[in-house]
Amino acid sequence: MELKSVYEPHEIEKKLYNLWLEKDYFKVNVNKDKKPFTIVIPPPNVTGSLHMGHALDNTIQDMIIRFRRMQGYNTLWIPGTDHAGIATQNKVEKEIAEEGLTRKDLGREEFLKRVWSWKEKYGRNIVYQLQRLGISCDWSRERFTMDEVCSKAVKTAFKTLFDKGLIYRGKYIINWCPRCLTALSDLEVLHEETEGNLYYINYPFLEGDGGIIVATTRPETMLGDTAVAVHPEDEKYRSFAGKTLILPILNRKIPLIGDEYVDPSFGTGAVKITPAHDPNDFIVGHRHNLEQIVVINEKGIMTEHAGPYKGLSGEECRKKIIEDLKEGGFLLKVEPYIHGVGKCYRCNTSIEPHISEQWFCKMKDLAVPAIEAVKKGHTKFFPEKYKDLYLYWMENIKDWCISRQLWWGHRIPVWYCDDCNNYFSSIEQPSACEKCNGPSIHQETDVLDTWFSSGLWPLSTMGWPEDTEDIKYFYPTSVLVTARDIIYLWVARMMMMGLEFKSDVPFHHVFIHATILNTEGKRMSKSLGTGIDPLDLMDKYGTDATRFGLTYMTAQGQDVKFTEERLEMSRNFANKIWNATRFTLMNLENFTPGTISIDDLTLELPDKWIISRYAGLVTKMTYSYANYEFSDGARDFYEFFWNEFCDWYLEISKLSLYSSDEKRKFTVQYVLWYILTGSIKLLHPVMPFITEELWSYLPQSNGSIMFAEWPSINENMIDVKAEDKMNILSGIVKSVRALRGDLSIAPSKEIQIYIEAPEEQDRTLIEEHCSYISKLGKINDLTIVATFEEKPKMAFSHCFQTIVIYMPVKDLIDINQEKTKLRKEIEKLEQDLVKINNKLTNEDFLEKAPGDIINKEKVRKEELTFKINSIKDRLGIFSNM
Asked: Which parts of the chain sit beneath pLDDT 50?
C-alpha cells in the first residue's frame, strides 16, 4: 500500500484506538516470566471533564507505560474514577433543585439512587475523553472508588484502624463549609489572599478607667469572646494581670489572661480569644478552661448567643456591629489589611471554624514508617526537591478529620447500640450489638472523606484486602505521576496506608510534573474562563501533536506558560515525519533488509555520521524516558529528526538513490530504513497514533509498534571522527546558506563558491565530499584552494573555523541597486531609532510607563542598533567593490 500524500490525524486516531481496544492490546495478566511495571491512574472525579492537567498527567503516564512495554516489561496501567463526594452530591442537589426538591425531601435512600443514576449517565464522560488522548490503560480492570471491591477495602481499612485505636470520635473545632454543610480537612481548604480591614476595638476594664485594645479582622466573632490574651512577658501589659474586661455590646465579663501563643509584635499585642470560632483560640481555651460560646451556626447564621444580631448572616452582622461599635465609642480605628481567607475547595465558600463532633484518624504513628521509607530511598521523588516538602508536612502532621456530613460516599462502618450506648465497627452489616447482643442498633450517618478511599487506591485496585495474585505480582507499583497540589492530600496518605496494610511502599518513584499556566502565568480555571480545553486542541491540531507539544514545553520541575505556538510547531513536525516517511517508502520499492546487519554494510561518511547521531539519540532518549526528563527527550528527537535526518541525510541520500550504483543504493536504503524504523520506535511513547500508522507501512514491521523491541545500540555505531568531519561539511553548507540569506538569493538559484582551507586534512575532506556540498548548497562551480594570493573580487565571505567561504556576487545582484536599497533601509531604521531614543529620554514617559513597556523599548533600541550596524557593514563591503 502507498502512504497517503496528506496526513489526516483524526481519521487515523479513531481507527487505531478502536483497533487497539478490539484486539485487547492493553490487557495484561500476571506473567511471572516477565518483570512487572505498574502504574495506577490518579482517579479523576466522575464529575470531571478533561483539562490541561489531566492531559499532561496522562500523556506522561502513557509515555512511561509505552516505553516500558517496548523494553519488555509486563506493563499494567490500572484506570479508574473517584466518586468525589462533595462535588458529585452538589451536582445532583442542583439537578433536583430544578424540580423544587432537596435531598431531605427525597430521603437518603432515594437520593442515593438519583446519585447512582447520575453517575451512570455522566460519570464515564471523563473516561471517554481520556481514551481520546490515546492512553493505553487496561480498561478491563477499571475501578471506581465506590465499587464492591473498593468498598470492601475501605471498610476493612477503617475497622483495622478503629480496632487499633487509631480512629476515634471527638468534639473539636474543624473547618466547616456553610454551603456544603460538611467538615473539611485542613488540606481541603484553599487560602486566598484577600483585601480586608483590621479593626481596633477597645475592651474596657470592669473597674477603673481605660481598657485593652485588640485588633481583629472578624469583629462579628467577638460576640463569642471569652477572654483577651497577652503574652506573659509583654511589659506593657504586666501591670494589668488578673484584670477583668467588659465585652463591648454584650457587656459580658471576660478575663485578661497571659498565654505564650500571643505574638506581642502583631497589632496591639493583645488578642481576643474566641474558642468556638478559631482553631488557635480553641487550643488556648482548653489550656485556660474557657467557655466555648457558639455565635455562628452551621449555615453561617448568627445564633441566639449573638444577642441582638441573632438571625443575621455573618456579613450582615459585621456591618451592623461595626456601626454599633462606632456609636458606643469602642471602635478606635480601621486599617486596610490583606490576609488569608480559607475557602472550600469545591464551592469556594468562606470556611467557618466550627466546633463539631467528628471522626478523626491519628496520623503520627502512621507517618513514622512513611517518613523513614522516603529517607531511606525506598520511595524517591522526581524532582528531588519535593521530597523535602513531603517530609516537612509528614514530620508536622496533625490528626485527620475523616468524617463528612454528606450522603454520597462511603458510609462510616460504625454502629451505635441504643441499649448499652456502645459503638463498634464492622465490615459486614451487623444484626446486633457486639457487646450486649441487643438488636437496637443504627449506623453512623456520616460518610468518609473521599481521600480515605483514594488513599487505598494502589491496594484496592488490585483486590485488597484479599491476597490476590495481582497484589503478589504487581504491588508495589513502579511510579506515581501526579501534581504537587496533592502530595499531602493523596501521595502521603497512600504511603501511610500502603505501609500500614502491606508493610511496603505503594510506589518506588513519585514524579511530580509541571503545572501548565495560562499566558499570563496564572493557574488555568475553567470557571474563571482562563482554562483551555485539550479536546479543542486535539480537534484543531490532532492528538499526537497536542501530546508532543505539551511534552516539549514542560521541563521537569518547572511550571510553564501555555502557548499554542508549540502545538502549531508539533503539527508541522507531524507532517514532516509523515512526509519524510513517505519519501523513504517511495525509495524503498523492492527493498528487503533481510538478515543483514548494519555492521555488514560498506558505509560512507554521511552514513557513519547519521548512524552515530542516531546512536546518541537512542542513549539520550532512553535516559530521558527512564528519568522523567520528557521535555529533553522531545527536544532531542525534534532536533535529530528534522535538522539532521531530514535536512541533511535525506537530501544527501538522493545522490545515491538516483544513481546507477546498486550496491551504494542498497546501503543508503538500508540506512534510511534502519534510522527511520528506530526513530519511529523512539517517538512512539509520545506520539502513538502516527507512529503506529507509519509502522504498518515499513518493511519487516510485524504486529503493533507498541510491542516492538526498544532500540538498542552497540559501541561500533558511535563514530566521533565521522561526526567531526560531517560537522565541517555541514558548517560549510550553512555558511553558503547564510551568504545566500544575507543577499536574499533564492535557494533554487545555483551559485559559484570559492573555499579557502589552509589545513590539508580539511581540503582533502572537502574534495572527497564536494558533491555533497554542491548538492546541499546548490553550487554549480566550486573551487577549493589552500590560500588565495588575491582574494576573489566582488565577493562576500563567511568564516567557519579556519575555513573561509567566498561567494562572488557580480552576476547575482545589481550592486548599485543593492546599495540604494540598503541606504533606504538604514534611513528607515534610523528614523525608528530616533523615535525610541526620544521616548527613552522623555522623563514623563519614564515616570508613567509600566516597567515592561520601558524594557521592551530598550530591547527594541538594541535590536535596531545591531541591525543598522550590520547593514552598514554590508554596505561598506559593496562600497569597496
From this structure: none
Q: Which three cell numbers stand for residue 615?
A: 546512536
Contact present, 59 and 534 (Cβ < 8 Å)? no
Contact call for residues 447 and 85 (beta carbons, < 8 A) = yes
- Owner of C-alpha cell 558511535: 718
Amino acid at 106: L
Rounded Cα–Cα distance for residues 622 and 620 (Å) = 6
Task: Of 88, 158, 46, give the one whose Cα is nearest residue 402.
Answer: 158
Instruction: Single out the residue of 758, 795, 802, 751 nearest to residue 774, CA to CA.
Output: 751
413/445 Cα distance (integer angstroms) = 9
Helices (H), 605-719: 605-626, 630-638, 651-657, 662-683, 688-695
Please give the Cα distance from 678 to 655 (Å, whole number): 23
Q: Using alpha carbons, select from 342, 338, 351, 336 the residue that is nearest to residue 200.
A: 336
On whether the CB atoms of residues 120 and 146 are closer than 8 A, the answer is no
The count of other CB atoms within 10 Å of the CB of residue 429 is 8
Eight-state DSSP code of residue 99? T
The grid cell for 486 is: 496533592
CA distance 781 to 340: 74
User: Which distant-in-sequence residues (6+ apart) come within 8 Å of 209 by Cβ?
Assistant: none
Inter-residue contact 9 to 690 (CB < 8 Å): yes
Q: For strand 189-204 and strand 182-184, is the pairing parallel, antiparallel, or unpaired?
A: unpaired
Residue 796's DSSP bridge partners are 807
- Judged by DSSP in three states, 842 sits in coil
143 Cβ neighbours under 8 A, 6+ residues apart: 43, 78, 79, 80, 81, 149, 150, 460, 461
Angle between the N-to-C axes of helices 662-683 and 630-638, in degrees from 0 to 180, rounded to the nearest 10: 160
Q: Hey, what amino acid is at 736? A: V
Cβ atoms of residues 711 and 700 within 8 Å? no
**Element containing residue 507 per DSSP (H, E):** strand 507-512
Look-up of cell digits 465558600 = 349
**Which DSSP string corresponds to 392-441?**
HHHHT---EE-EES-SSS-B--EEEETTT--EEE-SS--SS-TTT--S-E
Nearest-angstrom CA–CA distance, 844 and 337:
32
Mind listing the pLDDT tens digit for each residue in 342-352? 888 767 788 88
Cell numbers for 577: 515525519
**Residue that the C-alpha cell 545515491 belongs to:** 656
State how far the Cα of 561 lies from the Cα of 515, in Å rounded to an integer: 9
- The reply to whether the predicted model has a pTM over 0.90 is no
Given a contact cutoff of 8 angstroms between Cβ atoms, the answer to whether 840 and 855 are in contact is no
Residue 350 pairs in a beta bridge with 343
Amino acid 466 reads E
**Beta-bridge partner residues of 331:** 201
DSSP code per residue over 154-219: HHHHHHHHHHTT-EEEEEEEEEEETTTTEEE-GGGEEEEEEEEEEEEEEEEBSSSS-EEEEEES-G
Strand order in the sheet with 270-273: 244-247, 252-258, 227-230, 270-273
By C-alpha distance, which of 215, 217, 154, 746 is closest to 460? 154
Pairing of β 441-443 and β 270-273? unpaired
Question: Cα(311)–Cα(302) distance, rounded to whole angstroms?
Answer: 5
Render 558-612 in DSSP notation, one character per residue: --EE--HHHHHHHHHHHHHHHHHHHHHHHT-TT---TT--GGGS---HHHHHHHH
**Whether the Cβ atoms of residue 574 and residue 544 lie closer than 8 Å to each other:** yes
